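User: I'm putting together a teaching handout on how multi-component assemblies are represented. Below are the sequence lines for each component of a complex, exactly as they appear in our records. Could you produce the 3D structure of the whole assembly as structure tokens, so the students can see both representations side by side? Please keep the chain order the same as the input.
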Amino acid sequence: MSIFEIFGLLFLLYLIKDFISKNRNISQNPKVRGPLSLPLLGSLWTLGKLPHEDFSRLSKRYGNIMSFYMGDTYTLVITSPDMLREIFVKNFDSFVERTRSPIFKKVTDNYRNFISGDESYWRPFKAMLASSFTKQTLKNHVTKSIDDQTQQLVDVMKSFAETLEPFAPKKFLERYTFNIITKYVMDEQIPYDQEEMTNSPLVKLFDHFSVILQQLGSANLADFVNVLKPFYEYYLFHSDQPYDHITKLLREKTEETMKTYKPNVTRHLMDHCIAELGTESEHAKRSVTNITVDLLVAGAETSNGTLQWCLLMLANHPNYQENCYQEVYEIGKDKLLILNSDRTATPFTQAFIKEVMRVHPIAPLGLPRRAKEDIWVQDVFIPKDTQIIQNIRSLLQSEQYWDDPLTFKPERFLSGMQSQHFVPFGVGPRMCIGMTLATEEIYTAIANIILNFKISPLNGIDKIDESEVFGLTIHPNDFQVKLEKRKNKLF
Ligand code: HEM
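Assistant: Of course. Below is the structure of the complete assembly, with chains in the same order as your input.
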């Protein structure tokens, strides 16, 4: 037998063993079922271009707690709200950490960041950042910049309404959410003005973010198959990656900020972190850089995508847009700007935004976690290192928890009846830290857009395409709308 034949035979035996052990593991857990697992690929063969839709389809077939091999990573896909709370709230300590893969190792600086950091990083960072995202802190430090950005956004949109030029929202909404978070984190903004936009150093950062989000969103087999992982990891750590440019730019910014830092003067969130971590150590420099990257990555794209969906749904549902307009007009007719403090006086507009987030949740599978140890939860055995996926989109559209779930019906939120299953930001101590900020920036932009403009599909188009593009966040295909200035506003 030649060396190649021996190698081939060993590989075949490995595939057979892999096939048997994966499917035995699935069948040994009687409370959970899942699709057949193939050698190496695991159950990935069941996923297409829109994995969140596939998980919805599969969980209807296999149940609210579904087992699924992502390559070699044993995974539980959770659609049951009770089980989500058992795992992420009651047993939080056992599921505090996120999943591991070569790409995450690379973009998290070896799990030393906040979003995907190991427990030893996450806990102190969370303690340091929690107070920066409370309602009161945001009111003191962010609300004004949200109002400024909203005014600038509305002004840009007015120029489109005046010329009746089609308005492509993506670029401007990106700028809106990016500016709000960069202003808060490092007191910088990209001007809306086209010329200046291309010259701003922050634009480089912004461009790198789009690439990195694409990279993170597109699943790579090498992230999940054990034999491929070391090669992929080597490639990621020994080649020029978009992430390296972001870290380099923000590391420079961190060092520059540390040089001008004065104790007792907090200019922005970076200063707040520097006050806690110091200016000297490598740990401090690394941590401030990593946290800054995290907040910019997580803070801009998510709210931007949600805003895009809101505009699209306003254009596609003129009756609901009119209901929102009547409501915001009463509040905003004699004001320059509708404010976040007006939110409770506009319940329908709030319900509209929630319904957009239910039908098009921007993070339909949340951010995966990992079991730290073997544990039993509600009669289900969860082995150490199991990956846990929150099947948020499926839960938000399940007939078990919502009436008529596939119909877009904002009024469902007016009674508050079904709100306990509304979990687009995740649940438990590691849920989205930016929820209050996101809610405020989305509301302020949308309420003022509705007050100032009638939004419709372009002439000749009945409805804008609502199909979803899968990535780190789920966004619509690029689209344009027609803007008409509302005439009856006093200012
Ligand atoms: C519509 C907007 C947003 C949605 C739907 C959203 C959703 C989510 C979800 C589902 C998670 C995972 C939670 C979990 O593991 O249980 C998350 C985590 C996170 N989000 Fe958001 N997010 C949004 C906006 C923001 C904004 C504006 C920020 C800015 C600060 C932000 C910062 C973060 C961070 C830092 C984490 C990681 C939290 C941790 O690991 O402790 N998000 N988000």
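A couple of points students might notice: The chain has one domain: 3-485. Residues 3-485 form a domain with the Cytochrome p450 fold (CATH 1.10.630.10).
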